[in-house]
UniProtKB/TrEMBL annotation:
Family annotation (PANTHER family): 2,5-DIAMINO-6-RIBOSYLAMINO-4(3H)-PYRIMIDINONE 5'-PHOSPHATE REDUCTASE, DIHYDROFOLATE REDUCTASE FAMILY PROTEIN (AFU_ORTHOLOGUE AFUA_8G06820)
Binding residues for substrate: 170, 186, 206, 209, 296
The organism's taxonomic lineage, starting at the top: Bacteria, Pseudomonadati, Pseudomonadota, Alphaproteobacteria, Rhodobacterales
Protein name as annotated: Riboflavin biosynthesis protein RibD
One Pfam family in the UniProt entry: RibD_C
Bilayer-spanning residue ranges: none
Gene for this chain: ribD
Domain of life: Bacteria
Listed InterPro entries: APOBEC/CMP_deaminase_Zn-bd, CMP_dCMP_dom, Cytidine_deaminase-like, DHFR-like_dom_sf, Eubact_RibD, RibD_C, RibDG_C, Riboflavin_Biosynth_HTPR
Residues bound to Zn(2+): 52, 77, 86
Domain CMP/dCMP-type deaminase: 3-125
Length: 364
């Protein structure tokens, strides 16, 4: 891998990140067209998933694309969907070389894009920045391979790990700087998910605010009985911002009709040990096209996801005060007898945010 290949691929990856949370079920891809060492075109997957990154970069490059190198953060698509294949667009534009990290694991592509390019006489180089691309595209790749989206679990807690006082008072544990970062994280995911207890106690909006005009993430609430207030912020805005309710198989038909009547999408899921099965929830969300889910609790939902091994990333925001043992814990009971039974994560980042500390972890 040359230094130039790594540099331009890093730019393509950074462009792709602009589409995170905006283009599911499509991958958030970036593309850079380089002619004679100069960038002549850039693009990334548009909100809603179209246009793709490559045709946008090619449109910027124009005739300068002929004989140029295209750096793409995923194998160009090879199938006819709502748009023609990007591999065909690169061939038609006269691209001489394509650099990418790895094959697309979507069965409709799976090496066919690279094969089309090679058949047209285009040099193809793979393996460039594959590890970083794998992290960026993990949700898309996981949905294709195992049918569920990537899950990020976020917890904002006191120094002693509490998310509220014994009376349920929780606003605000962290300061404005941390809360702004949370909105940015929401924006980079396809959906924001909470449990029924959090929905009832906090009456949240679960939207991205003060970040400019954006496509809002889907709001997901996991509620076995659908016993959620019909006069809540979520219910009031269900026609304006998507609201999906994951519930058990035996719910009051009148509640189903009421929630559907105000615009919510209802997703029946399996129940195990008296609660909605988290694997069933994630597979239902994957079937609806989601690739990245940002879970904001509460404790019971967080515990069920952790116990099932379904949390891929942890993001913690810790404030500099203690609430005490009577406060509400951020994670419900896990039933662990030994420390080596606890799910382990690898520290990726720590950062001071005003008076709080953010720490980010990935699955070990």
């Amino acid at each position: 891998m040359t230094g130039a290949d790594a540099r331009f691929m890093a730019l393509a990856l950074s462009l792709g990140r602009r589409g995170m949370g905006q283009c599911a079920p499509n991958p958030a891809v970036g593309c850079v067209i380089v002619q004679g060492g100069r960038i002549v075109g850039r693009g990334w997957t548009s909100p809603g998933g179209r246009p793709h990154a490559e045709p946008q970069a090619l449109a910027q490059a124009g005739e300068l694309a002929r004989g140029a190198t295209a750096y793409v953060s995923l194998e160009p698509c090879a199938h006819h969907g709502q748009t023609p294949p990007c591999a065909e667009a690169l061939i038609a534009a006269g691209i001489a070389r394509v650099v990418a990290p790895f094959d697309d694991n979507d069965p409709r592509v799976a090496g066919r894009g690279f094969a089309m390019l090679r058949a047209a006489g285009i040099e193809v180089r793979t393996g460039v920045m594959a590890e970083q691309a794998g992290r960026d595209l993990a949700g898309f790749l996981m949905r294709n391979e195992i049918g569920r989206p990537l899950v990020t679990l976020k917890l904002a807690s006191s120094f002693d790990g509490r998310i509220a006082t014994a009376t349920g008072h929780s606003q605000w544990i962290t300061g404005p700087e941390a809360r702004r970062v949370v909105h940015g994280l929401r924006a980079r995911h396809d959906a924001v998910m909470v449990g029924a207890g959090t929905a009832r106690a906090d009456d949240p909006q679960l939207t991205v605010r003060d970040m400019g005009a954006r496509r809002q993430p889907v709001r997901v609430v996991v509620s076995r009985r659908l016993d959620l207030p019909l006069l809540s912020n979520l219910a009031r805005t269900a026609r304006d911002v998507p609201l999906w309710l994951c519930h058990g198989p035996h719910v009051d038909p009148a509640l189903v009709k009421a929630w559907q009547g105000i615009g919510a999408l209802l997703l029946p899921c399996e129940v195990t040990q008296g609660q909605v099965d988290p694997a069933s929830v994630l597979h239902a969300l994957g079937a609806e096209g989601l690739t990245r889910v940002f879970c904001e609790g509460g404790g019971a939902l967080a515990a069920s996801l952790l116990s099932a091994g379904l949390v891929d990333e942890l993001v913690g925001f810790t404030a500099g005060f203690a609430i005490g043992a009577e406060g509400l814990p951020g994670v419900g009971a896990l039933g662990l007898a030994r420390l080596d039974e606890a799910p382990r994560y690898r520290l990726v980042e720590t950062r001071a945010l005003g008076g709080d500390v953010m720490h980010r972890w990935s699955r070990a």
